[in-house]
Amino acid sequence: MKQSGPVRNTTTRRGFVAGAAAGAVAVAAPVLLRADKAAATQGDLEAAIRAITKGVRPKEDRVKVDAPPLAETGTAVPVTVTVESAMTAQDRVSAIYILLEQNPEPEAGAFHLGPRCGKAEVATRVRMFAPQKVHALAAMSDGSFFTASVHVEVTLAACVEIDVK
């Protein structure tokens, strides 16, 4: 195969800058579109708890939240919730909820446990907006609720919002 001349790079500086700008907009668009709400308020957390418990006041007992006291990044903070329960028909955990008081959406996870579940324990990773308390709420089969919380310091936030004005 015969070449008809030297191969030329047809990319111009203007074309490169336009392409880079389009790439930056594509990457930033999801963050920019969510800029309407930066962090939940205490009222948002209380409303989420009321929606789950239907007004029943949770007791601070039987629930243990295990999370690191200091997380280097809020991208994937490990959280384990354990509830003391015999997991019998009379004393069974039907659901475990994880709530974060400073995230844009307070409810970080909902885990429904069936009657065959032998242990009331869930483990997951959550994204954290800022240093905050991780709340766990356990719904029992008799309609009662138990709760516990632990504070986690986050050095680098994961749910960063950009203020667009």
Structure write-up:
It is a single chain. The chain starts with 12 loop residues before the first helix and ends in an 11-residue tail after the last strand. The chain has 165 residues and is of the alpha+beta class. Strand 4 and strand 5 form a beta hairpin. It has a domain at 42-154: Sandwich (Immunoglobulin-like). The strands form two sheets. It has a five-stranded mixed β-sheet, covered by helices on one side. Strands 1-3-6 form a three-stranded antiparallel β-sheet, with no helix packed on it. Mean pLDDT is 84; it is low at 27-36. It is 20% helix and 32% strand. It has helices spanning 13-33, 42-53, and strands at 63-66, 70-71, 77-83, 93-100, 107-112, 121-126, 132-140, 145-154. It is built from two helices and eight strands; from the N terminus they run ααββββββββ.
How are the SSEs placed, and which strands pair?
Elements: H1 13-33, H2 42-53, E1 63-66, E2 70-71, E3 77-83, E4 93-100, E5 107-112, E6 121-126, E7 132-140, E8 145-154
Parallel strand pairs: 2-8
Antiparallel strand pairs: 1-3, 3-6, 4-5, 4-7, 7-8
Question: What attributes characterize this protein structure?
Answer:
165 residues, 20% helix, alpha+beta, 2 helices, Immunoglobulin-like, three-stranded antiparallel beta sheet
Query: CATH homologous superfamily of the domain at 42-154 - what is it?
Result: SoxY domain
**CATH uppermost class of the domain at 42-154:** Mainly Beta
Q: Report the strand count.
A: 8
Helix count from the secondary structure assignment: 2
